[in-house]
Design goal:
69% helix; 3-stranded antiparallel β-sheet; mainly alpha; 311 residues; single chain; 3 strands; Multidrug-efflux Transporter Regulator, Chain: A, Domain 2
Amino acid sequence: MEGDALYSIGELARRTGLTVKTVRFYSDRGIVAPTERSPAGHRRYDRAAAARLDLVRTLRELGLGLATVRKVAELDLPLPEVAAAHAEALAAQIRVLRLRHAVLTVVAQRGLTPEEADVMHQLARLTEDERRDLVEDFLQAVFDGLDGDPAFVGVRRSMTPEPPEDPGADQARAWVEWAELALDPDFRAGVRRMAQDLAADRAQDGTTGPRRDFTATVHDLAAPAVAAGIDPASPEADPVVEQLASRYAYFCGRPDDDALRRRLLRRLENVHDPRRERHARLLAVINRWSVPQSLSPVLDWSVAAVRARLR
């Protein structure tokens, strides 16, 4: 059909890929009115009406409401302005859906009870201010009274989640799990003990500036023994334990004796909490940091080696 030819309602439906019922619906509401009617009363549409119907279909597929579609089609609203507002609304919906997906994924993976699932759902719905308050409350519980030591500025920063305004699915899931972990009183107490251990060690040797994390030193000393398959209770492990104790004595500014080795064991046991490693991994996902290497095998070995010699 070229020139001034008109489309019947059936032809217009076939041209646009819509049903006759849908075309009639838009026509009855005056959104795509017929150009004229035949002597028998049948509706006829010109090419401009067909183009208008194409626009209406596109806008509806994009999710715009009927009232908005009418205003855009009638040029009462500029399309770019409508598109921008709708895109913003969709972005908000996407963020909500990601958080819901995160909660459902965690519930499915961990087999949570309805009560636990409800807690996760509430955590996912926190506002930005509420999330910030939760993070600050957790950090305050861990570092209260220790903020005067410059070393804890970096430590505190390394334990601070900073979820983006528009998190990815993995970040949303990690945030929900981090929030659950941060609210666990037992986990808070464990992290607090680790911070206090570090503060006590630094007080013993008078260190004021930053220094290497002791767990990294433990990894460097014990990892080769783990890789070699050395039994932590065997004589072959003695030199490694001697090095661990010697290095820890240096850190603490104390002699290597039985009391120091018991203190070393307690420090290793406090650090060797699976939740601490999970916490570090969740932070890495939320903040898009490199995922830290697992210290679990090395800490397993070190705890067993030191404990065997104390017995």
